[in-house]
């Protein structure tokens, strides 16, 4: 395999990433609450030799969402542990919040997944945008954006110390002398920082990868800074090719400044994809999804994904002046910029122009066109592949695996078998 080998991550979202997906797919509406649904998707992604599947985590849902979207936000590690049992090779990436977990406990859960899956675990480090999370965790206030990222640095530092708390060769297994493991090979974190105090070692030996793979999807300067320091896989990326090339160059420069090698960082931006046998068919599928989209959902979702509580706003009034300032999360900045351009316009109009969620771009076309898109972006040096968000599932993922993957393989640009068995091995250039 050449240095140009592509990498793909499958974003699993109930019925697909488009908000109308659940209204057009065959699922009986409750299927997304059962393991067979996720197992089917994971096996399809593995059939396509993808590097990983990915599960997001939203630890507080604004209630408007239950009207418009399937709500299936299970604990990602529990789902991935079940999927570890029905797959063999594919990486298993789950999201975990640095604002609403304890680092030792999170280190333990991801290391457990790494053990149970034979070295396939990855952690998507998020700081959690929604302020609604605070009330679910008994906190009085949601820390602001800068504060969350400051904590995140210390949090990840502690997690990696916990993962490193057993040497690789600590297990002795000397039955005769009754020595299970060598105590001299333990390295307790004994960490005392600004936000966290963590003393002891993990309650089991080092996992197959040692450290599960670190993933980051922040889009703000602080998010990119965290990625540069720690991430081996980055999901974010701007929508245009020119901007993505620039983003990659800046990320690489920051990775170098953090004392790391950019070759150790894969960039797989999230991309919503709608495929069809012909261009007309793909367009018709995408148009059907858009026709069903709800303007009520759109304005509420734009606020929610910007870290605001939609229930606290009047959609027929302008965005309050104090929220039109610069700063805060990247999505809030987007909303604020739109409101500054049209200060008198009602919120629902401002928000309508901003698509919610992680997929900023929607690719619509044939497998051949999508293969060309992927290769053009990789050849320009912008990406190593993509995080594929099927607008509907399992249709788009199956179409990708059955029709796009063979094209990329024929061109010698994508693996024809898994050569490694851990997620980190899959991600190697
Ligand atoms: C592909 C992708 C997946 C994401 N998954 C999650 C998630 O599961 N949970 C979450 O709270 N945020 C998630 N985010 C949001 C990011 O962590 C981040 O908060 C957001 O991109 C805004 O960036 P900023 O925090 O640097 O402003 C995701 C973003 C992207 C692009």
TrEMBL record:
Its EC number is 1.14.-.-. Residues 35-382 form the Luciferase-like domain. FMN binds at residues 57, 95, 145, 149, 220. CDD domains: Nitrilotriacetate_monoxgenase. It holds the Pfam family Bac_luciferase. The keyword Ubl conjugation does not apply. Keywords: Flavoprotein, FMN, Monooxygenase, Oxidoreductase. GO terms for molecular function: monooxygenase activity; oxidoreductase activity, acting on paired donors, with incorporation or reduction of molecular oxygen. Belongs to the NtaA/SnaA/DszA monooxygenase family. This is NtaA/DmoA family FMN-dependent monooxygenase.
